[in-house]
Amino acid sequence: MNVLIVEDDRALARELGIFLYNEHYYCDFARTGREASEKLFVNEYDFVLLDLGLPDQDGLQLLAQARQERNQKASIIILSARGSVDDRINGLNLGADDYLPKPYSLLELGSRMQAVTRRKHGVVLDKLAFGGFVLSLGDRSLRHSETLLDVTRKEFELLHYLLLHRGKVLTRLQLSEHIWGNTINDSADHDSNYINVHVKNLRKKLAQQDPATEWVETVRGIGYRLRLEANPDLTT
Amino acid sequence: MKLQRKLVLLTTLSKCLMAAVLLLILPWLVQTLVLGHTDAALRAELRQVQARIEQVGISEFLPQDQVQRRTHYDLLQDEFIDLQATTAKMPPDTIGTFPRQRQGSEVDFRVLRHSARYQGQPYIIEIGKSIESVQEVYKLLRNLAVYALLFVGLTTLLLELGVIGSLLRPFDHIVERLRAVQGPTPPDLPALRTSTSDFQYLDASIQQMLVKIQSVFEQERQFIATASHELLTPISVLQNRFENMLRAENLPEEAETQLVTSQKTLQRMTVTLRTLLLISRVENNQFARTEEVPVRLVLQEVIEELEDRINNEALVIHWNLTGEPVLAPANRSLIFTLFFNLLSNAIKYNQYGGQIELGGYSTPEGGYLLRICNTGKPIPAEHLPFIFERFRRFDEDAAEGYGLGLAVVRSIAQLHHITVQVESDEQRGTEFTLHLPPAA
C-alpha cells in the first residue's frame, strides 16, 4: 500500500513515516501543496494523509482538486491541527474519508486506515472472536458460547480496540484517546485512570465466563494487551 | 436612590421651601399691600374732599348746630370723614391705625389726618377707613395662595417626573449597554439618541472604551488561538515519537515507564491546549448555531457516555425534568460538551453512593430552568465567585482536572445566552442552575 504524506513539518512527517513503514506501508512525502499535486498526478496512492496548514495553499483546496480527478482512487485522511468543527465538516464534505485532529495517536491513525481499507474493499468485519468469546460489531454485543454478556458501551469499545491490536501493548492513553475520542474533558489523567476501571470491570465480566484465562493482561507501567491465541479465529 | 428620584425630590423640596416662605410672609405682605392700597385710597378721597370744599365751601361739611365738628359715616360705617376746627398749631399730615368705636365694638381704622385752612380758619380733616376687610382679604389671599401653590407644585412635579425621566433615559441606555458587555463579543447596540451633550460625551467615551476592550479581547483570543495551534504541531511530533519508541523491541522497562510518563505529560498539555482552543473558538463565534437541540436527549447521551463512571461511584441519578425543553438556535456538540463538563464534575466531586439530580421546569417567560445538583462536598463560599475562571483550581490534587472545565461551560453558556448560577451548601450539596432562553 502506498501512502503520500503531505506535511510541511519534517519531524512530524518523519515520525509518521517510521510508524507506517513498521506497519508495512510504502511512504512518499510532499511538503507543499504543489509538490503534493505533482506527486498525485504522477503516482498512484492508496492513501493520502493530508495536513491542512500547508505553506503554499490550503489543504482543503488540494483535497477538492484531488477529488475532482476521476481516476484518483486514494483514500484521503486529513490530519490537522485546525481542529475546528467547520474544518472537519468541510473536509468530510469535500470527500475526505476521515479526519484526525492533531495531536493524534499513531495507533488510532493505523486503526482508521485499516477501517477505511476494509470499507473500500467491502470487507465488513462483523465478528471478532477470541477464546470462546464473540464480539459482534453489528449489534454491539459480546457473547460467550450462548451467553450474552452485559457490557457497557465503553467496555465494548475497549475490548474491540484491544482485539484489533491483539498481542500489542496499548497504553492507557491510546485506549482513552480511542474511547473518549475528542470529548473535551478537563481531566485526562482522570480518564486514563478510568481506563483501569473499565479494564477491571471488563475482566470481571470475562472471568465469569472463562475463569481460567486472564484475557486482558496488564503490562506494568505501560498499559494493557489482549492475550494472543494459538489460532486467532477471525470470522468475516 | 436613582438620580431621577433625587432630582425630582430636590426640585420638590425647593418648591416646598419657597411655598412655605411665601405662606409665612403672606400676612405681612397682605398687610403692607392692603395698607398701601388703603392709604392711597384715603389720599385720593382727601383730594376729592378738598376739591369739594373748594367748590361748595366748607359749610356743607359742617353741621348747622355745631360749627366745631362733624363726623360723616358711610352707611356701613366703614368709612368716615371728620372735620373739626382747631385752634392749635397745624400738625403735619399723619396717617396711622387707630381703634374706634363702631356699633359698640372696637374696630381698627386707618386714619389720614390732614390740616388745612379754609377762610383763615384752620381745620383738621380726618378720613378713616376700617381695615376689618383686610383680614378678609388676607384669608382670601391665603387660601388662593395655598391652592395655587398646591396646583403649581403637583403639575410641575408630574411634568418634572416625565421630563427628568426622558432627559435621563439616555443614561439608562448607556448603563444597559455596559451591562450587555459580558464577554469578548458585545452585542451591537443601536446608536444613542439624545441631545444632551454630557450624555453624548459619556456615550462616546464608553464606546471608545468598549472598542479598546474589544480589541484587547480580540488580541487575547487571537493569541490563544495562534499559540495553541502553533504548539499542537510540536506536541504531535513528540507524542508520535514516543509512540514509535514504545513500539521498539527490547526497550528497557525503565525507559518504557519514562516514555509512558512523558506521554501523560504531553497528553496533559494537549488537553489544556485543546480546551483553550475550544474556548477561543466559542468566543470567536466559530461555531454555527443552527440546530434545535433537545435538552433531555442530549442529557441522556451525556449520562450514557458517563455511565461507567456513574456505576463505578455507585451514584443514583434522579430525573425530575418536566416538559421537553429545546434550545434553538444552538450547537449540539457544544451543548453536549457543556452538559458533559457539568455532569462530569457532578460525578467527580460527588461522594461514593451519592446522588445527582437533574431537575427543571418551564418558566413563565417561555424559557426553561435546568438544575443539576450533586450531593458532594460543598464548594467553599469564598471560591464560588471564581469557579468559572480559567485555571482556577481549588483542589490541591492535580488529578482533579486542569481548571478549565467550568471556563468552557461559561463560554458555551454565554454563546447560547444561557445564564449559569451556582449555589453550594452543606445540606443540599452543589447546585448549578441554568436559565435556558426561550427557543427562537
Distance from N terminus to C terminus of chain B (CA atoms, Å) equals 36 Å
- Total strands of chain B: the figure is 12
Pick out the low-confidence regions of chain A: none
Question: Main interface pair?
Answer: A-B, 49 and 56 residues
Please state the overall shape of chain B, judged from the principal axes of the Cα atoms.
rod-shaped
% residues in beta strands of chain B: 15-25%
Q: Give the helices and strands of chain B as they follow along the chain.
A: HEEEEEHHHEHHEEHEEHEE
Outline of chain A, from the CA principal axes? elongated
- Compute the number of strand runs of chain A: 12
Biggest sheet strand order of chain A reads 2-1-3-4-5
Q: If you compute it from the alpha carbons, what radius of gyration of chain B comes out, rounded to the nearest whole angstrom?
A: 47 Å
User: Termini distance of chain A?
Assistant: 22 Å
Provide a count of the helices of chain A.
Answer: 8
Q: Counting H and I runs of at least 4 residues, what is the number of helices of chain B? A: 8
The helix content of chain B is 40-55%
Helicity of chain A, in percent? 40-55%
- SSE string of chain A, helices as H and strands as E: EHEHEHEHEHEEEEHEHHEE
The main β sheet of chain B shows up as: 5 strands, antiparallel
